[in-house]
Amino acid sequence: MLRFGQHLIKPSVVFLKTELSFALVNRKPVVPGRILSSSISAMGTHARGKSLRSSGHFKGQDGPEAGQTVKHVHVHILPRKAGDFSRNDDVYEELQRHDKEDSLGKWRTEEEMAAEAAILKKYFQEH
Asked: Which sequence positions are flagged as catalytic?
């Protein structure tokens, strides 16, 4: 298990692990393919995501006033495509609203997350 702020992360949802960082799938993605990259310690992290989308959105939050809900250095990586939001910057409003919702019914199951992590893990092993 890895510690991610106040959460314990099961290895089944981690698709990449290095000496200093790990990447995992999101339990409640705003857009399909949203992933998180985090440091193993409280030090910084560096990550790159790959998907079938045309663009990417990297989001970092530091502190509660910035909307941070997990007290651990991490980066959200959101694949983007044309038309996924009516106005491009609407993603910020959706993230603010989305991150404040804490409805367990909207969370994906561990099995769903493990299946996505297995697909991503293959990509990183092959490339």
From this structure: 74
